[in-house]
Amino acid sequence: MVEKEALKGTGLELDVGTAEYNVGEVFGRKLYQSAEQESFIASARAEGPETKLLRIAADDFRLIMASQGSHINGSEDIMNAELPSEFKNPVPFRLEDFQVIGLVGYGSFGKVSLVREQATKQIFALKEVSKRRVISTGQIEHIINEKRVMSIIDSPFCVKLFRFIFLFI
Ligand SMILES: Nc1ncnc2c1ncn2[C@@H]1O[C@H](COP(=O)(O)OP(=O)(O)OP(=O)(O)O)[C@@H](O)[C@H]1O
């Protein structure tokens, strides 16, 4: 149940209530989206021996969720967001344009290398994904979603997908 309570010395009336959240859920998003940010006070208690409560400053949250002019607030926004124009009309490139500097790691679908673009000298991580492995493990939808999210997201905290290429080998 939500009740109203006066906030001392401010003349503001606040909604007072409690809510329970499950693992991975974010509380405070309403504060972030709301224009009346000053009239929101929240305290949180994590219960259970394995529970972790992570706090993130509003400015950092804004950077993660909506950096560089985008207005992405949650997973629905990402799924509905327009793909960047370079993904609708991909700029062709060749693997030969990149010089491999070293191996970074292995994932479930292939390897990741550190590479340098010859023309610009820019450094990238090049991730190779085996389509055969994606299909045989039933991960087609997941990999398409991963590509979509990584191409739309634009945050200093997240890896961004700049380009992709399909090879038939
Ligand atoms: N952009 C990147 N920059 C630096 N290292 C990276 C980058 N992407 C991947 N790596 C490294 O390469 C490894 C393999 O990455 P990859 O994305 O293929 O798999 P994963 O995310 O670890 O697991 P999964 O394949 O199950 O999703 C990672 O564990 C990480 O060490």
Automatic annotation (TrEMBL):
<dbReference type="GO" id="GO:0005952">
    <property type="term" value="C:cAMP-dependent protein kinase complex"/>
</dbReference>
<dbReference type="Pfam" id="PF00069">
    <property type="entry name" value="Pkinase"/>
</dbReference>
<dbReference type="InterPro" id="IPR017441">
    <property type="entry name" value="Protein_kinase_ATP_BS"/>
</dbReference>
<dbReference type="InterPro" id="IPR011009">
    <property type="entry name" value="Kinase-like_dom_sf"/>
</dbReference>
<feature type="binding site">
    <location>
        <position position="127"/>
    </location>
    <ligand>
        <name>ATP</name>
    </ligand>
</feature>
<dbReference type="GO" id="GO:0004691">
    <property type="term" value="F:cAMP-dependent protein kinase activity"/>
</dbReference>
<keyword id="KW-0723">Serine/threonine-protein kinase</keyword>
<keyword id="KW-0067">ATP-binding</keyword>
<protein>
    <submittedName>
        <fullName>Protein kinase domain containing protein</fullName>
    </submittedName>
</protein>
<keyword id="KW-0547">Nucleotide-binding</keyword>
<feature type="domain" description="Protein kinase">
    <location>
        <begin position="98"/>
        <end position="169"/>
    </location>
</feature>
<keyword id="KW-0808">Transferase</keyword>
<dbReference type="InterPro" id="IPR000719">
    <property type="entry name" value="Prot_kinase_dom"/>
</dbReference>
<keyword id="KW-0418">Kinase</keyword>
<dbReference type="GO" id="GO:0005524">
    <property type="term" value="F:ATP binding"/>
</dbReference>
